[in-house]
Amino acid sequence: MNIIIGHSNTDLDCLASMIAAQKLYPGYDIVISGLLNPLAGNVVSFYITKLSFKGPADLKDQQIDNVVVVDTRSSMRVKEFFANISRVNGRITIFDHHPTDGCDIPGAELNYVKNGANTSTMVLKLMEKGIRLDSDEATIALTGIYADTQSFTTDSVTPEDFQAASYLISQGASMKLARFFLQPLKNDYQISYFHTLLNVIDRHVIKGHEVLVSYLDLPKRVNGLAAVVEQVFSVEKADAIFAMFHCQADDSTSIIARSRKKAVPVNQILSVWGGGGHEKAASATIKKTGDMNVPLMLKEELQKLPPDRTAESIMTTPVKTIPMNVSIARAKEYLEEINHTAAPVVDDEGKMVGMMGNKNIRNAEKAGCMETMVPAYMNKKVVSINKDSTMREIEKVFLENKYNHMPVIDDSSMLVGILTRKDFLKAIHEEDELTELLQTR
Ligand SMILES: [Mn+2]
After folding, report:
1. Is this model's pTM higher than 0.70 or not?
2. Alpha helix positions (H), 289-327
3. DSSP letter string over 94-160?
4. In the chain, pLDDT over 70 holds for what percent of residues?
5. Distance 190 CA to ligand 1 centre (A)
6. What values do phi and psi take at 23, rounded to 5?
């Protein structure tokens, strides 16, 4: 028997990878995990007449020749299959896009391609070989790519993901069905929890990171809450979310966490409770809560986070400034020299008193007042940013004001730097790299 397997708790990318793998390895049986994530479960249920799967129990007492493993390389995530396999006579071939967790399946040939979705790697192999897909297969594969790349918006997306998607569309993949399968909240109760969660969620700023925290007491266990939490997170602007659910029936507390940035690694934070997952998605379950104050404990853990970047860490310094006791003609010359459209005006002590830009100079020129001192024509009402402002506060200032150059000042109004929209966008783009730098310091 030749088989294709994926990881336990099969998701859409894993399911799609297995189906594509079967096109590459005809005659191999797909053995599916006993645990499917809800979205993968929906796809399976709608195509059940078309797709045929074996379960881990079907492997018992079978001669296993070759094994193809997709969407995981970790022996920890394929235990349910190998528990029923005594030996593999032939080869184990892996197609995965995850970095190693240190527990790679031994003796396997590894094809590690870092695409946003593992399905993309499989589809490109089909494309190279000229293997066509029918429209159902193409739809499932496209759904897998959309799921793992969050519709082509994750940092891990590659040109190959787009190529694979493009091939799938040419093979008749249905956008309507992909959209239908990707709808995260399938049940009415999930929608009602979605609204409840939005109402009870608290927003905290911890060392500059915006963290959403919620606590709900439920009579019994509820399935599908991770999708609800993700949905709340997708509409709320925040760096991370920690949703706690206490279940009265067995006194357990589960925490579902998601993060958008490396500086808030949710797996590390939840590791205190033996949680698992990765930097951006993790969960933990405390079996007996007893008189543990989980929200308070979480708050204490969050206090250990490294501080986020502030205006001071992304601003440009030193700043080219204009002294207040020079003429507008001199200020004009100076702006031309330094090739800037505006610069802050400072007094003798370095305190910022205004901004002088080309527009102010033109006004002075029109009035024939070029020999007047700078303060007569400068902008006195200047929007500035405190050096300790968080990324979110800086964003707000830029959104609410039209200026491009924002002077950065300290608590005693001393000018310490300047921040432009470009600096801000650069900082967002380099967020994760910058975080690493700050942490290794
Ligand atoms: Mn995947």
Report:
1. yes
2. 294-302, 311-314
3. EEE-SPP-S-BPTT-EEEE---SSHHHHHHHHHHHTT----HHHHHHHHHHHHHHHTTTTSTT--HH
4. 98
5. 24
6. -75, -30
- Output the CA 435–ligand 1 centroid distance in Å: 25
Separation of CA 115 and ligand 1 centre (Å): 9
Cα 12 to middle of ligand 1, angstroms: 8
The pair of three-digit structure tokens given for residue 259, joined into one six-digit string? 């993060």
Confidence bin at 47 (pLDDT 50/70/90): very high
Ligand 1 centre from 160 Cα, in Å?
14
Q: What is the H or E stretch that residue 431 is in?
A: helix 431-440
**Cα-to-centroid distance, 13 and ligand 1 (Å):** 5
Instruction: Using the mean position of ligand 1's atoms as its centre, give its distance from the Cα of residue 318 in Å.
Output: 46
Q: Where are the domains of the chain?
A: 3-182, 188-302, 312-429
Q: What is the mean pLDDT of the chain?
A: 92
How confident is residue 432, by pLDDT bands cut at 50, 70 and 90?
low
312-429 fold: CBS-domain (3.10.580)
Q: Which two tokens stand for residue 298?
A: 């979480």
CATH topology of domain 188-302: Diaminopimelate Epimerase; Chain A, domain 1 (3.10.310)
Q: How far is the CA of 148 from the centre of ligand 1 (A)?
A: 6
Domain covering 3-182 in this structure, CATH number: 3.90.1640.10
| Ligand 1 center–CA 438 separation, angstroms | 29
Task: Name the token pair of 105.
Answer: 């399946």
Distance 77 CA to ligand 1 centre (A): 12
- Provide the token pair at 359: 């527009």
- pLDDT range class, residue 437, cuts 50, 70, 90: very low
Backbone angles phi, psi at 177, to 5 degrees: -70, -40
Q: How far is the CA of 161 from the centre of ligand 1 (A)?
A: 12
